[in-house]
Amino acid sequence: MPRRGGPPEVNAGSMADIAFLLLIFFLVTTTIETDSGLDRMLPPIEPPEEDVVIKQKNIFTVNINKNGQLLAEEELIDLKDLREAAMAFLDNGGDGTCNYCKGRKNPESSDNPTKAIISLKNDRETKYATYITVQNELVGAYNELRNRESNRLYGVDFTEMEAEYLNPETDQAIRDELKEKVERIQGLFPQKLSEAETSTSN
Asked: Which of 61, 78, 104, 157 has the fewest Cβ atoms surrounding its Cβ within 10 A?
């Protein structure tokens, strides 16, 4: 039987289709990491009608330098101790008007949780991961105090109650009921977290 000339040819006509399908497959299955944002309420555009005077003792200053070191009230502090220090400041109740505060009532610290402000300042060279970790610790201080009061008043953690309230799948009647409770707890320890202008290292 005579042999046919030349090796058999490979049909490459469908290679473009295969490459296109592989491209779609990898686009669909690949996960792209994105930086999570921070939930912050922007200040109103209109300036306040009256100048607000804030006592220095009602401001808890936190500074992060480019090396990731923390200064709280001008003293070097470890990250693991930041939340406790912030909670002690917020829960101080120095003027005696806070009947739910369990702090030391130090007259040189914050007067009342409604007047207490945490001021965070970071260096331009501060690592993003450090910045986010410090933010989490400060927000965690608010959440722990809110959880305490929520358990005292309603027998449930504030974070769970707030998550159910913010869930769009929650029934509207339940959300209406939770709204009053969530706003009451937020009013006891309002989150006043201010970010000062970023500094530049010399």
From this structure: 78
Of 189, 133, 194, the residue nearest 158 (C-alpha): 189
Count of the separate structural domains present in the chain: 1
User: In this structure, what token pair is assigned to residue 26?
Assistant: 């990898």
Q: Tell me 199's DSSP state.
A: B
Sequence length of the chain is 202
- Contacting residues for 113 by C-beta, under 8 A, at least 6 apart: 90, 91, 93, 98, 101, 145, 188, 189, 190
Q: For 147-167, write each residue's pLDDT tens digit.
A: 999 999 999 999 999 999 999
Tell whether 12 is covered by a domain: no
What pTM was estimated for this model as a whole?
0.73
Residue 21 within a domain: no
Q: What confidence score (pLDDT) does residue 171 get?
A: 93
Residue 1 lies in a domain: no
Tens digit of pLDDT for each residue in 89-115?
A: 999 999 999 999 999 999 999 999 999
For residues 143 and 175, what is the distance between their CA atoms, to the nearest angstrom? 20
